[in-house]
Design a protein that fits this description.
The protein is α/β, with parallel strands linked by helices. The chain folds into two domains: about 190 residues, D-Maltodextrin-Binding Protein, domain 2 (3-Layer(aba) Sandwich), CATH 3.40.190; about 90 residues, 3-Layer(aba) Sandwich (D-Maltodextrin-Binding Protein, domain 2), CATH 3.40.190. Helix 5 links the parallel strand 6 and strand 7. Helix 10 crosses helix 11. About 5% of the residues have low confidence.
């Protein structure tokens, strides 16, 4: 009888323990998935090529935690009638204009720019920074397409984040950084550019709160490890198919804007970005600003 009781207690303990590995996590191929490589969910995470692929997984409830562009988090909040919760910011800055160096953005007058991110952060940052200019901006489905187009000289300039800046450098002859767009945005607005969001839904929090909290702790530790030892993290980036070569990943990590910040830490910057989008195009946020319940306080 004593052995049975001990066995039952062990089983109860195992069931009550919450492991982040139990979660279904979806991330984009890029900084968000690179920051995840040292987590317990790395082996099972979905690594997807575009935000649209993640939207369906969130709305259907297929995924428990998702990494999406900042404005997409607001779109999903409105689409799901206020049930989306912002858990963390995972990417800040990390938007570069590649091509012949320029002294000011005015020099883009009459130029052609290729970018990904139509309807997402890159588009709205570009619109803000080139407002009133005669600039032709064309959009491709994803950042890999932009890097590939650069190898064929299809435009004057290319907008890319890391790790695709490093991919770009491997594809073109004499690669150059023209301008740091995230820095230009911060100079213009007074706030850092919040690029990537970690989200869940209230339903998932009700079901798996302990697992989600455990995951967030694991994710924060992973980000610290990735930034502290890019060489080791790069091996995992290659292993999980985020980039083909660890050598490219190691070069990309320091400039990729990988961070882990709580909603409270970044709320002011997020609200400034959202205010810009509301002024330019409310549809970019799903028609209206998210409520205060969007910013998860961790309780």
């Amino acid at each position: 009888m004593k052995k049975i009781i001990i066995l039952l207690l062990v089983l109860v303990f195992l069931v009550s323990c919450s492991s982040p590995a139990e979660l279904h996590v979806s991330a984009l191929k890029g900084p968000s998935s690179m920051g995840l490589v040292e987590t317990k969910v790395a082996e099972t995470m979905d690594i997807l090529g575009s935000p649209d692929e993640i939207v369906g997984k969130v709305t259907s409830g297929e995924t428990d935690v998702a990494m999406v562009p900042m404005n997409m988090a607001s779109i999903l909040y409105n689409k799901l009638e206020g049930k989306v919760r912002l858990l963390a910011i995972n990417t800040e800055g990390n938007l570069y204009l590649m091509g012949e160096p320029i002294g000011s953005l005015d020099e883009l007058e009459g130029k052609t720019i290729l970018s990904a991110g139509q309807g997402a952060t890159p588009m709205y940052v570009l619109e803000l920074l080139t407002e009133g200019m005669d600039v032709s901006i064309d959009y491709l489905p994803n950042h890999s397409d932009v890097a590939a187009a650069a190898s064929e000289n299809k435009a004057d300039y290319y907008v890319l984040p890391e790790p695709f800046v490093t991919v770009y450098k491997s594809k073109v002859e004499n690669p150059q950084l023209a301008y740091d767009l995230a820095k230009a945005y911060e100079e213009k607005t007074g706030h850092p550019l919040t690029m990537g969001a970690v989200i869940t839904t209230q339903e998932k929090l009700d079901e798996k709160k302990k697992e989600i909290h455990a995951f967030l702790e694991d994710y924060q530790a992973s980000v610290e490890k990735v930034l502290a030892d890019p060489a080791a993290a790069a091996q995992l980036v290659e292993k999980y198919g985020i980039l083909e070569k660890a050598a490219l990943a190691e070069k990309a990590i320091p400039g990729a804007g990988i961070v882990y910040r709580s909603p409270a830490e970044s709320k002011e910057a997020i609200e400034a970005f959202f205010a810009l989008l509301m002024e330019k195009n409310p549809k970019a946020l799903g028609g209206k600003l998210p409520g205060d319940d969007f910013y998860y306080e961790g309780n």
